[in-house]
C-alpha cells in the first residue's frame, strides 16, 4: 500500500490534535529525552521509558509515524517472501501506543485478532484511544494489556509477533528472554530497531537467536547463514520516507515536508518463504549510462553490481530500484550476469 492508504491517513488524522493543551516547552523536553533513548544514549534500566501522559503524547506525535513506516516496510518484505501467508492472530510486544499494530492492519487489511502488550499503562491508554479512530476493525477491537517484559516473560501461541524499537530499552538478559519466547510462541517474528550501529548489533544478535531456535530468515537477508558484515566495519540498515509533522519541524528545524527513518530489521518464520535472491543494502548510485548496486546476496556475501544500458530492461529496472529492494526484481527478465 502507498502512503495515502486509509490506515496511514487515519493514523495521521488521529495524531493531528494530540498535543493540543500540552505546553510547547514540555512537549519539546519530552521529545528530546525520548530521542536520547531512541539513539541508545542511556543505559537500559528495565523500566518503562514512557512515564506519563505528556511523555506518551510526545512519543506518539513524534515517533509513531516513523515506527509505523519502518514496520510497514519490514512487513512488506515478509509479504513479498510469503505472499500467501496471512496472520490470523498478532501480538505487538512492547507495542506502546500501537504503531506496529497499525502497520499490521495496513499490510493485510484483515481482521487478525490483535493484542498489544506493554508495561506502560499510559501508552496503552493512549493507544486504545487512537485505535478507536482506525478504519480496521482489528485495531478498534484490539486487546490492550499491561505486561512486564522481563526474564520471566511467557506468551500465548500466535501467528505473528512484532517487536519494534523495544530491544534498546531492555537489559541483555531480558532481550534474550524476549527473543527466545517470541521464537517459541510465533510462526513469524518481525523485529525492528533504529538504523544505528548499535541497533544493527541488537538485530544481528536477535537474528542469530531466531535461527538457533529453528526459524528461517525471510527478510531482509537472502539467507539464514551468518551476516557477512564484520561488526565495527559497517551496519545493515534501510530507510523509510516519513511525512514530517509540525512537532518534527519544531524539534529538528528545517522546512522539508518529510524525513527518512533509518531502521534495521529481521523477519524470522516457521513456514515456507522465498527470500530475495539479493537485497540492495545501500542507496543505488545512478551515473551516466549505469547504475551501481551494493548487494547482499546468495551465496552469502557483499558485492557491487554494475547495470548498464546494454542490459536493456534490467537497466531501466535498476534505475527504479530503491534501497532495500530485492534484486533482480520479479520482472523484467533477469538476464544480467
What does this structure look like?
- This protein has 337 residues and is an alpha/beta fold.
- 37% of the residues lie in helices and 22% in strands.
- Strands 1, 2, 3, 4, 5, 6, 7 and 8 form an 8-stranded mixed beta sheet that branches. Strands 9, 10, 11 and 12 form a 4-stranded antiparallel beta sheet that branches.
- Helix 1 (6-16) packs antiparallel against helix 3.
- It is globular and about 60 Å long.
- The two termini are 32 Å apart.
Distance between the termini: 32 Å
- Percent range of helical residues: 25-40%
Radius of gyration over C-alpha positions, nearest whole angstrom: 20 Å
- Beta-strand portion reads 15-25%
Which descriptors apply to this entry?
single chain; 337 residues; alpha/beta; 8-stranded mixed β-sheet; 4-stranded antiparallel β-sheet; 10 helices; 37% helix; 22% strand; disordered C terminus
Q: How would you summarize the topology of this molecule?
A:
Blueprint: H1 6-16, H2 24-38, H3 53-81, E1 89-93, H4 99-108, E2 113-118, H5 121-131, H6 137-140, E3 143-146, E4 158-164, H7 172-185, E5 186-194, H8 197-212, E6 216-219, E7 238-243, H9 246-252, E8 258-269, E9 278-280, E10 285-287, E11 290-297, E12 301-308, H10 313-320
Parallel strand pairs: 1-2, 1-4, 2-3, 4-5
Antiparallel strand pairs: 5-8, 6-8, 7-8, 9-11, 10-11, 11-12
Helix pairs in contact: 1-3, 1-4, 2-3, 3-4
